[in-house]
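Hi Y.,

Following your request, here is the sequence exactly as I used it, all 115 residues.
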Amino acid sequence: MPGGPALFRLLVGLTGLVVVAVGLALVPLPGPGWVIVLGGVAIWAIEFMWARHLLRYTTEQLYRWNVWQRGQHWLVRVFLLLAVLAITATVVWLSIKQTFGFDVIDYVLGVGWAG
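Below is the corresponding structure, written out as tokens. Let me know if you'd prefer a different format.
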């Protein structure tokens, strides 16, 4: 087929670009934004050497982080968990507040939403 390899390379590039763009759009929200970005990089790694290197580097760093945190005292691990939960709760709160104009904290505290 004429242009077959070039067409395949173009399709891999565009598919990876769409997946990475969707992942980056989802990063500020709670959920798998970074996992989706890595999925897009994995798609690019099918055809592009730079993406293979980036994917290998990223997975090595994630593995190192996992080994490091598993070796920490349980109090450090609890602190890390609480930090992740606090960041996630803040992102959810800000997302709801900015998107819907509804402040969950004011509602829970009974401020400004007297029905």
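Helices lie at 4-26, 33-45, 49-70, 74-100, 104-109.

Thanks again,
Q.
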